[in-house]
Amino acid sequence: MLQTDSEFTRTRWICTVIGLGFYLVDIVTDVGLAVKYFLVGDLVWAGLTLLFVVVGSAATQVFSYTWYRDDMRKPLANPGGDGLICEMNRGGLIGLHVMQTGIFTRYYDLLKAGYRAVFSKPLGPVECPRDVHLALFGRATDLSMLKLFETFLESVPQLVLQLYIMLGHGHRSILQCICMVGSFINIAWAIVDYRRCLRRSLPQVREMPSGLPTFVYLLYKLLTITAHILSLSLFLVLSPYSTLGMAVVWLAGTLWAHWVRTDFCTSKGLERLYRIVVGVVLIFTFFNVKGQDTRWPMAVYYVLFVLVNLSGPLLLVLVRPEVNATEYFWPVTLLIFGGTVLGLVCLLLYYTVCHPRGRSLQADEVDGHMGQERETETPDNMVRVRNFLQL
């Protein structure tokens, strides 16, 4: 159904707490693993492990602060015109984000407002309850998008790195396995959480159905991303210079985002950063960058995707035939082939049978560029249509 009666429920509030827990576990285990590498003298691995954490966190802080700054200028988000958001001025927000705590501020703000809406008993008549719930979903969507940034800048590359260390160098530890499991769970949670939050925050589109459609969608994303991560890991085992190939894919994705003229941010500098992030995400999965019909670009992407996945094991056997004797090669190869086939089957099943039909999302509306008429009709956080990830 269309989003006319969506409510920010107690279940949604609890899911937000769970998402925060997964995020914390992922970050803590990654930092702990970096420290362990450092203590045993593996300085390169320690530096790379920590680098992904820093890059992912820094990028999300930049976007989080910019969105807060833009909200300060809007009458619905800042009706008093006092330049305060979350009871903080611009200087306070800068300090929070420099300390890398902006995303936790957003969690606190959402959980506090959500608790008042779904747990506290109202003392009198509640005005515009629909607007309140839509605004909460708008905040949740902002937060889930930031987590998605962090996921593809930190958790996914972290999995590739740790798999390379494990397969290429035989280095295994319990903490390393915990770190990989934490990253995998964080990826799964972030993808589905963003998808559902985005569709619920927009009244003009149909809600993503629960149950089988969500399960099929999750399988499609996890199977294809996992198969691709394993294939890229084998390329790294073949040669660390395979990172140059990944850089070429990133550059192609960034140039594509520039070519389609994404209009996501309020400044040219931040738009360039956004397109860089787009390029990183496109290394691992396809998404609709402009909210338009992308049937053919998606088809081309997944044809190349299959070729890359099949090439990883094949090249490793041809160039380094001794890997046939390793204990990991054939299980990993079967996972790559099986994940690729089943993932694409789930993709076709989802978009032919399970995908909600209805009006499509508009293309990349930008904060601060909304018309006055629209701002008077809907809550500020709800009209923040950051739909760059129609995954």
Walkthrough of the structure:
- The protein is mainly alpha-helical and 391 residues long.
- α1 packs antiparallel against α6, α4 crosses α5 and α5 packs across α9.
Which features characterize this protein?
mainly alpha, 12 helices, 69% helix, 0% strand, globular, single chain, 391 residues
Short description:
This protein has 391 residues and is mostly helical.
Helix content: 55-70%
Main sheet?
Answer: none
Low-confidence stretches: 1-5, 358-389
Number of strands: 0
Radius of gyration: 22 Å
Helical/strand content category: mainly alpha
- Measured between the Cα atoms of the first and last residue, the distance is 20 Å
User: Strand-and-helix sequence, N→C?
Assistant: HHHHHHHHHHHH
Q: What is the 3D shape?
A: globular
Q: What percent strand?
A: under 5%
Mean pLDDT: 80
Please report the number of helical segments: 12
Topology of helices and strands:
Elements: H1 10-39, H2 43-72, H3 90-98, H4 102-118, H5 129-169, H6 174-201, H7 212-238, H8 243-259, H9 268-284, H10 295-319, H11 329-354, H12 372-375
